[in-house]
Amino acid sequence: MPQLLLEIFSEEIPARMQQGAARDLERMVSDRLKAAGLTWDALTTYAGPRRLTLVIDGLPAATPDREEEVKGPRASAPEQALDGFLRKTGLTRDQLTERDGVLFAVLSSKGRATTDLVAETVDQVIRTFPWPKSMRWGSGTLRWVRPIKRILCLFDGKVVPFEIDGIPSDAITEGHRFLGSGQLLKVSDFVDYRTQLEREFVLLDVADRKLRILEQAKAACAARGLSLVDDDGLLDEVAGLAEWPTPILGDMDPQFLALPPEVVRLSMKVHQKYFAVRDPAKEGLAPNFLVVANVEATDGGKALAAGNSRVLSARLNDARFFWDEDQKVGFDAWNAKLSGVTFHAKLGTLAERVERIERQARTLGRQLNISPALSGEAAKLSKADLASSMVGEFPELQGTMGGYYARLAGYDDAVADAIRDHYKPLGPNDSLPVGGVSTVVALADKLDMLMSFLAIGEKPTGSRDPYALRRAALGVIRIILERDAFLSLKSITDVWPGPNLLAYQKAWELSRDDDYSDIKLLDELVDFIRDRLTVLLRDRGQRHDLVAAVFALGDDDLVRIVRRVEALAAFLATDDGANLLAGYKRASNILRAEEKKGPVPTGMVQTGLPNQPEPETVLAFAVGAARTAVETALETEDFAAAMTALAGLRAPVDRFFEDVLVNSDVAEERDNRLKLLGQVRDVMGQVADFGQIAG
Amino acid sequence: MTTSTEPLAFQDLILTLHRYWGEQGCAILQPYDIEVGAGTLHPATVLRALGTKPWKAAYVQPSRRPGDGRYGENPNRLQHYYQYQVILKPNPDNLQELYLGSLAAIGIDPKLHDIRFVEDDWENPTVGAWGLGWEVWCDGMEVTQFTYFQGVGGIEVDVVSGELTYGLERLAMYVQGVDNVYDLKFTKEGLTYGEVFLENERQQSEANFHGYDVDGLKRRFEDMVAEVSRLLAMTGPQGQPLVLPAYDQVLKASHLFNLMDARGAIAVAERQSYIGRIRELCKACALAYVERERAEA
């Protein structure tokens, strides 16, 4: 069966857009062909610096014939409606069929030549392609990511004839801009296309380009006893910047290794797209870099490596200039600058934010028994590096630079560490700050973010979270959960933003219509953190309803919440748990039905009544025993024991429902049984709100 | 075409580019006689990119960025430097090839060096101009900004211009293999760039950072702003608005803003408002320019 080959050849496509474009091309073409009733064996797309390519194998030469029934007006409809329908369908009245008083037309369409469909499809795809940014060029009207130079379109080895805004389809492509022969390449099919391109120094498939980069880069490093510092993001990018990627190992002036390695790496990566190189025998980076060129240079890359090395020196000279200048300036001058930097129009300057973090850190330090003086000092210096030249150049180095500068300036190591690490954790997989002071400042920083933005009513919505509040909340949660033994910090209320409430009140009153109250604001914080905890637990595989069942208890001790959810999940996975849940549902359904009728009796359950069925007595004693056991277990926060205590209810509950009729004719018996069910619900309710659990 | 016997001196680099782009049909213009921050701001680019009339020009434009001054102590950063600017409207289909031809003309062999087109969407918010294109890298160094103009003065362009901006000092440093801009050979005979410009950098840096009277700069800025509207409201002998003189005042205002900025006299909060005002003035000029061309047609 025939093959379709399409190549849209353009000027250089931004690396970051290439793979998304390959997916869009696949989706757009296959949607349109499928809609026309076509099927095929295999469809593949490729994207590279100068071309988007699509190949479909086993595509029929024509679309299938189709019959389609179209619903028309009612037979009783006015003349105009019928005329309109006939015009639309191109049929006459006697060709319509009538069913249940409604007219139908059967339209049959002959299959079309696939080439016609392809010509139409390519036109539509090019004109509506969802590039993140597109442009016009020359005097034309077409939009593409960069100017289109030619369109290759072959079906079954023959050019599919069309023209789009003056660009005719053809069987021609081009090889590598510099390494190729410079000849136009006439192509017959995909294998020929790919082979000719490779001969002309173009690797079509990004996977091949990456493989070539990694293999040659590692080999180049190994030849000098060095090893490559892996960087997948950078690999993706450089694989989109070269059709014939050629790694070259270059030398860097070793004096630059005196700079912090973060600076060297970032400068290489951000500005130059170089990989860093390590000497396995030594600490830190090696005085080398690895550049991925787009040419196999005629001198083996010597001139090119030397050129890149000079450029890198200039870059690192800049970085060293910033490093030296920053050390002459220092924290006081930077902090002074922060009073001129707006943090947020409704929240004042960065200096004001730093004051809040400092107050918060001192309070937390006192509360958690971690030097309030060091915590306060670290907090006070925590944002100063935002005014430094280096962070101005590399915003990614916030915190990192402050840490270096603080150490050089002779501050306590705990302070320097805290400045460096207080942004942590930066996501679910980032590590937590380690020391006590670092942890206190990290909490204070995040808490101020949350409180400030909640105060002015800036909660994240949907995918919009411009101030990364979710990340801040997740950070607070992870610190509380994972550092609890060390900090005796359990609950959200342990980190009350007390010292800054006046500031938050001011921000609230400037930006919101509703009346301020401490309680309202703190409730918003607790709710927000709980929501994030729910998401965190769900991401860890916990069921949403179990989390809700535990949250319903109103606890704000995060550690306890998590342990309770875990114990509950384990319990429900057992036979006893599942059955008891069913029993609970039955009991609470009965109680709910009764509650609708009027007040349900509560109080002491009587035992030893005349004619009292044995299962009723047994359950009464079991509930009593379970209550005591659950209470003891909960006092020591032994949730597994609490679940075991509940498990003891399963058999008595099952038997009770099997043998005893709750709705007895004797009012006294009925009341006693309702009281008993109420107690089952209450005892279980101490552990979790089982009513929230699905199943 | 020189095949790297002796690397080009700074002035020979300029002369080679002039010859090359002159042969491509460009009018070789001289620098604009008002301080600008970039070659784009020359009316031969910003205004000529508007409307539908074809236009081809190339020129050197001294560019002043007061905040970039380093008293002549930084080997790569200057508050006054040269850009080589080419504008081709509409952009020819083979603009990339023409550009690579210019590199060959100044002795850069693409089989020996790594020439790359790296995404860079250019915009200049003060003149409301934007475009898509690349930074062109030679062995990892940005040597040219290559842009297809999509909008100027806040107006979408009718016809797309191709704009090439070469950083002449950097390119020359590359070609000559020099690490310090002041060591560049300005002439073949050995006059250095430092001998021509070092003293200028020292004096101008001091004036930019500490010298100019801030109140005076602010006053003159306001004067220039007022002048733009006044001139635009007037008409010339053929009934045309006085776009060209008005635009000159926009350039002057823009440079005064840059000086105030270097003096540290622009608070963070005021910045956007200043830039916004300059952009509005520029837009007014652009609109008047386009209307004038339409009226003529």
From TrEMBL, chain A:
Pfam families for the chain: DALR_1 (PF05746), tRNA_synt_2f (PF02092)
EC numbers on record: 6.1.1.14
Residue stretches making up the DALR anticodon binding domain: 582-686
Keywords: Aminoacyl-tRNA synthetase, ATP-binding, Cytoplasm, Ligase, Nucleotide-binding, Protein biosynthesis
Compartments in which it is found: Cytoplasm
MF term (GO), any: ligase activity
Catalytic activity, as annotated: tRNA(Gly) + glycine + ATP = glycyl-tRNA(Gly) + AMP + diphosphate
InterPro entries on file: DALR_anticod-bd, Gly-tRNA-synth_bsu, Gly-tRNA-synth_heterodimer
PANTHER family, A to Z: GLYCINE--TRNA LIGASE, CHLOROPLASTIC_MITOCHONDRIAL 2, GLYCYL-TRNA SYNTHETASE
Subunit comment: Tetramer of two alpha and two beta subunits.
UniProt family annotation: Belongs to the class-II aminoacyl-tRNA synthetase family.
NCBIfam families named in the record: glyS
UniProt protein name: Glycine--tRNA ligase beta subunit
Protein source organism: Brevundimonas intermedia
From TrEMBL, chain B:
Major place of residence: cytoplasm
Pfam families linked to this entry: tRNA-synt_2e (PF02091)
Swiss-Prot/TrEMBL keywords: Aminoacyl-tRNA synthetase, ATP-binding, Cytoplasm, Ligase, Nucleotide-binding, Protein biosynthesis
Record InterPro entries: aa-tRNA-synth_II/BPL/LPL, Gly-tRNA-synth_heterodimer, Gly-tRNA_ligase_asu
Coiled coil: none
Subcellular location: Cytoplasm
Gene3D superfamilies: Bira Bifunctional Protein, Domain 2, Class II aaRS and biotin synthetases, domain 2
Enzyme Commission number(s) from the entry: 6.1.1.14
GO molecular function: ligase activity
Range of residues in the leader sequence: none
Reactions performed catalytically: tRNA(Gly) + glycine + ATP = glycyl-tRNA(Gly) + AMP + diphosphate
Family: Belongs to the class-II aminoacyl-tRNA synthetase family.
Quaternary structure and partners: Tetramer of two alpha and two beta subunits.
PANTHER family: GLYCINE--TRNA LIGASE, CHLOROPLASTIC_MITOCHONDRIAL 2, GLYCYL-TRNA SYNTHETASE
Protein's UniProt name: Glycine--tRNA ligase alpha subunit
Phylogenetic placement of the source organism: Bacteria, Pseudomonadati, Pseudomonadota, Alphaproteobacteria, Caulobacterales
